[in-house]
């Protein structure tokens, strides 16, 4: 009876464990099972990247990097905005765009308010200096306000034996009332308001632009890589290194042109103020620099946990770059060369390579490094014995599973898995081939026009739909289109993937836009007008890259051997 009582107590745990054990052989037996679409290479790569992002944000390494980069560029408004854009873009290369914008915006908001208050203080000092004396009416008003404040304090003194909640509530209501009356007057001048708008959009747009640079920078890049490697397994040309070499120049150019456009749109582009050689910094610039330095000093010296996170971050990036650089053999080639010489493992590895060619992928690195974040100790947990001795009984790792779960975007993982299942269904049912045949008349158009039309279509659609949903919907359509018109699929898929991130027009277009819009400095039309210019810049730079440095990287002018051969019926 005692045995059955234990079973009753732990019935939920036993149900979960035995259900998993019973269903475990199914993925090996039924290889066509739909559930396999929900756990692909993309999901493993995402898990490893989120482990890194969790540790970076937990130990405030991201804040240290952002403040340090801003301190390097100076406090001139134009250079300050460029400094924030650069640091935000760099962080967005490794963290999610949303978390980057959410982390940097409080710093930007505090810096902007510091600049405004410093300028007000300087003007008040100048007015006092020129008037030669203080304002008597102001002194009388201040004394009256001081007396009223003292009277309120007397009224709300706590009575012995009673709670003072009423006083706290009335004081809170007065504070909210006062802040509400002053909220409409938080900008001294129009220039201050324009500066706040500029800073907000710099963060929103640079967090999106930075995500273009690495294949792990945003979910749309990962979705493209998984879809492409599944549809064209013989290509083996899309990896972390090749993507970085392709997109980094484009991201740099888009970032600089966006900075120039936003600077001119909101504050004007005054070269004399930007390059004020030999001139001492103004009072507000000194105040801004002092605030940023103070925030940096609050972090204290770099800690052991930050050093370990930084080392793992660098190791992960180096392993990604060196896995398959393209111009030389990477370390991934060592697995197929060395392991296959071991007689016992050779049949097993050959079978695995048949199902998973190039089994050492970017997700291998991400998952191994991500596992280390759960194993490396961050600090020791100690307790005091009855004799007064302090002993260690356990340790706390760099991140815990609960912290990882709070950062992991499970909704994106499920959405992308559904997209992969949809793509598999389109391929197996012949729908993709049918769509490609219907779109084959587009082959009569010039290639540059087809690329432009697809890029503008994607850019327009992503303004009203989520980026992952947009790319998941269009990839199964654009791939057969490229095959039907006998064009290298990368010629159409690469610009379309990059343009999926160009959601700059509306607050609801992507999470970074919504985050900066929530601070109350922007109107919808501000974002529409400024974002339209950034959209044009982004599409133009991507088009330029597709016909310059990207062409020789992937030999885009020839139809590749790794793409499906085109029959006479589908060739235009």
TrEMBL record:
Annotated signal peptide: none
Record-annotated membrane-spanning stretches: 42-61, 240-262, 302-321, 354-376, 447-478, 490-509, 530-551
Localisation: Membrane
Membrane topology: Multi-pass membrane protein
Annotated PROSITE patterns: NA_SULFATE
One GO cellular component term noted in the UniProt record for this chain: plasma membrane
Pfam assignment, any one: Na_sulph_symp
Keywords: Ion transport, Membrane, Sodium, Sodium transport, Transmembrane, Transmembrane helix, Transport
GO molecular function: sodium:sulfate symporter activity
Family that this chain belongs to: Belongs to the SLC13A/DASS transporter (TC 2.A.47) family. NADC subfamily.
Protein's UniProt name: Solute carrier family 13 member 1
Organism: Bos indicus x Bos taurus
